[in-house]
Amino acid sequence: MRTAILLYEGFTALDAIGPYAVLSNVPEMTIDFVGKDLELKNPDKGFTSFSVAHTIFTAPPPDILVIPGGAGTSIAAQDKDILQWVQDVHKSSQWTTSVCSGALILGAIGILQGLTATTHWALQTELEAYGATYVSERFVQHGNIITAAGVSAGIDMALHLAREIAGQEMAEVIQLMMEYDPQPPFASGSPRSASPATISLARQIIMQESEQEQKEQARL
Amino acid sequence: MRTAILLYEGFTALDAIGPYAVLSNVPEMTIDFVGKDLELKNPDKGFTSFSVAHTIFTAPPPDILVIPGGAGTSIAAQDKDILQWVQDVHKSSQWTTSVCSGALILGAIGILQGLTATTHWALQTELEAYGATYVSERFVQHGNIITAAGVSAGIDMALHLAREIAGQEMAEVIQLMMEYDPQPPFASGSPRSASPATISLARQIIMQESEQEQKEQARL
After folding, report:
1. Half-sphere exposure of A215 (CA within 13 A, CB side)
2. ipTM computed for the complex
3. What's the pLDDT score for residue B217?
4. Which residue of A has its CA nearest to B180?
5. Strand-by-strand arrangement of the B64-67 sheet
6. Nearest CA to B26 among B179, B166, B168, B155?
7. Which of A7, A17, A21, A105 is such that its CA lies 20 to 30 A from the CA of A71?
8. Which residues pair with A97 in a beta bridge?
9. What is the C-alpha separation between A179 and B137, in angstroms, rounded?
10. Which pLDDT tens digit goes with each residue over B125-180?
11. Which domains does chain B have, with CATH numbers?
12. Which chain B residue lies closest to A206 (C-alpha atoms)?
């Protein structure tokens, strides 16, 4: 079985590596990182560059597609080549999934129209512009489409997917190997639990990062 | 402030990217990925190669050191150049931290002697060979040394560190931006909650991966 994880300029590393950590432990799974180019010049902060094994023009068709989010998603969601590839892959994939703002790319190819779906909590409006109804769940499944909430939610979604593919026993083994026994130090992981001041500051930073990303990409 | 994340052949991606996701959002933080060579030829499964910005011979001295774990740690923990660098960095670092089997590298430079510490649940014996006492905690702090448990525990540890560096409000904002509101689908994240069969199968796979890694590295 093959999983393709789509990377693009301005993706968020944990969105990709959370599901990767789970799925790379599923028996007989091959993981391909796939990008529009073989080299991302503007990946997440601190990486100088990021190489992928395949471009969207040469990648083997995957059984599972994972689309991470990031400050660059809104730009990727307007890239015709990327959208065409995602559309083609979805025709034959067994599972088509997104993490965080990656849902906007699924929205852009029209497959969330009329469905409930999730994304990062700050992007409800952007998601609903594609005809989906945002729900505040860790992940939402409709047939072979699964959308997950912000960043770290990809881990929970991928464990669910591991169970679908390899059965509950193997999924539990993978959770144990990752020692995924989370103990977040604060009760601020969701807008339901965070204070209004925390929510407001988080929104500001997210908006700044998205603007910064648009400038970076204009410069490239 | 600078964070160096040490990468080596056979590191586990999530061990590095979990803390990275948190620390890269701390205001005015620079993150450097650092390796013995600029190119890792045998990184985690599915990466064809992994480039870092600095080698241990040229990296700027960091304020925070993060040492991830992985199937390659026991080999890295015998590499004189890596050990020398970690020892030098620890002399001036503000925080020296490990995730998962990364604790074995801290053990190898002798700084866990006589302390309680944590690591992946399957590596208690290996950790205690360095004179530490294993405790089953998400992370353990003694002064400026923090050890975290297996793989995903690096996220919880880094949020704690974010509070120490940037205060609780910013740490809560970072948790919210990551939507770190974990909802693991199974109660199998720790040997306390997993079944004996799950624990036994996880141990087998971990042992196989470590043997596989030793063969890979002998081949390089």
Report:
1. 6
2. 0.96
3. 86
4. A189
5. B54-55, B30-35, B2-7, B64-67, B95-99, B145-148, B139-142
6. B166
7. A21
8. A66, A146
9. 11
10. 999 999 999 999 999 999 999 999 999 999 999 999 999 999 999 999 999 999 99
11. 2-185 (3.40.50.880)
12. B177
Task: Give the one of B51, B100, B185 whose C-beta lies nearest to A156's C-beta.
Answer: B185
- Dist CA B128 CA A215 (whole Å): 50
Which residues fall within 8 angstroms of residue B31, CB to CB, at 6 or more apart?
A: A45, A46, B2, B3, B5, B20, B23, B24
Whole-angstrom Cα distance, residue B5 to residue B97? 10
Closest CA to A203 of A122, A127, A149, A134: A122
Report the gap between the CA of B79 and the closest CA in chain A (Å).
25
Which residues in B8-160 belong to E strands, given as ranges?
A: 30-35, 39-40, 50-51, 54-55, 64-67, 95-99, 116-117, 133-134, 139-142, 145-148
State CA B144 to chain mean position distance: 15
Residue B134 in contact with partner chain A when CB distance is under 8 A = no
Binding-face residues of B in 40-99 toward A, CB within 8 A: 44-49, 51, 53
Q: Give the rounded distance of the alpha carbon of B136 from its chain centre.
A: 16
Chain A residue nearest residue B160, CA to CA: A185
Residue A154, token pair as written in the block? 């990809």
